[in-house]
């Protein structure tokens, strides 16, 4: 029997509601850093790719240089197959032995060759270049007239030519559009989710 007025008859205090701090749920700093780095890398990669593509396809139409893809191994290992070589225009009398030039293969108007100047000789018709591929054991059979102006190799970008070649396929072009779009979509959804969680935390 419980006596009247015992502590068990006293009203118990109602549980207090947790005080809102006005802060959003804690964000994993490692995940935030990974998203930030991923966004930066993706943006940089897309930017570099677009610049490179424009430099190869559009630039030569308006600026005094050429860009061609090396499709054979005759200049390996210095200029490996699949490289994109950039050339500038120079007068023929400025070309010297050891320079790498590009020219139309004699008798093949649609075939261009990038070889090194092996020797410069003179005949009854004037000066001419004897060329040779770095990977070839002997000089080329043809003789290139050293007249007017031509294209001198300045630098090359290895492997990039393979990418440019593959982009000619419809599937590659489609993937080029879809992959960056999907990655950007994932990053955007994550940022929206995080911003919504932060607003909900502030309004609670």
Number of helices: 4
Topology, number of strands: 7
| Beta strand % | 15-25%
What's the CATH H-level superfamily name of the largest domain?
Umud Fragment, subunit A
Mean pLDDT, to the nearest integer, reads 79
Radius of gyration over C-alpha positions, nearest whole angstrom: 34 Å
Q: In the CATH hierarchy, what is the architecture of the largest domain at level 2?
A: Ribbon
Which spans have pLDDT < 50 for at least 5 consecutive residues? none
User: Termini, distance in Å?
Assistant: 47 Å
Shape: elongated
Q: Summarize the biggest pleated sheet.
A: 7 strands, antiparallel
According to CATH, what is the topology of the largest domain? Answer: Umud Fragment, subunit A
Helicity range: 25-40%
Q: Taking strands numbered 1, 2, ... along the chain, how are they ordered across the largest sheet?
A: 1-2-7-3-4-5-6
Number of domains: 2
What structural class do you assign from the helix and strand content?
Answer: alpha+beta
What is the CATH first-level class name of the largest domain? Answer: Mainly Beta
Q: What is the N-to-C order of secondary-structure elements (H for helix, E for strand)?
A: HHEEEEEEEHH
Summarize the structure.
The protein has 204 residues and is of the alpha+beta class. It has helices at residues 29-57, 59-62, 160-166, 170-203, and strands at residues 65-69, 84-91, 100-104, 112-123, 126-132, 144-145, 149-157. The chain has 2 domains: 29-63 and 166-195; 64-158, Umud Fragment, subunit A.
């Amino acid at each position: 029997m419980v006596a009247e007025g015992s502590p068990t008859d006293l009203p118990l205090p109602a549980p207090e509601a947790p005080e809102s701090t006005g802060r959003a749920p804690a964000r994993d700093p490692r995940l935030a850093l990974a998203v930030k780095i991923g966004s930066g890398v993706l943006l940089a990669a897309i930017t570099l790719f677009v610049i490179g593509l424009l430099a190869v396809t559009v630039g030569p139409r308006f600026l005094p240089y050429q860009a061609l893809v090396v499709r054979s191994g005759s200049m390996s290992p210095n200029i490996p197959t699949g490289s994109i070589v950039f050339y500038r225009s120079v007068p023929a009398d400025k070309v010297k032995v050891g320079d790498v030039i590009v020219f139309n293969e004699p008798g093949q108007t649609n075939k261009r060759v990038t070889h090194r100047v092996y020797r410069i000789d003179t005949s009854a018709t004037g000066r001419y270049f004897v060329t040779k591929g770095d990977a070839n054991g002997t000089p080329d059979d043809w003789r290139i007239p050293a007249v007017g102006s031509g294209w001198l190799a300045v630098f090359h970008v290895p492997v990039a030519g393979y990418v440019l070649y593959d982009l000619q396929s419809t599937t590659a072009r489609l993937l080029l559009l879809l992959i960056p779009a999907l990655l950007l979509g994932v990053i955007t959804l994550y940022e929206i989710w995080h911003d919504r969680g932060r607003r909900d935390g502030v309004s609670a």
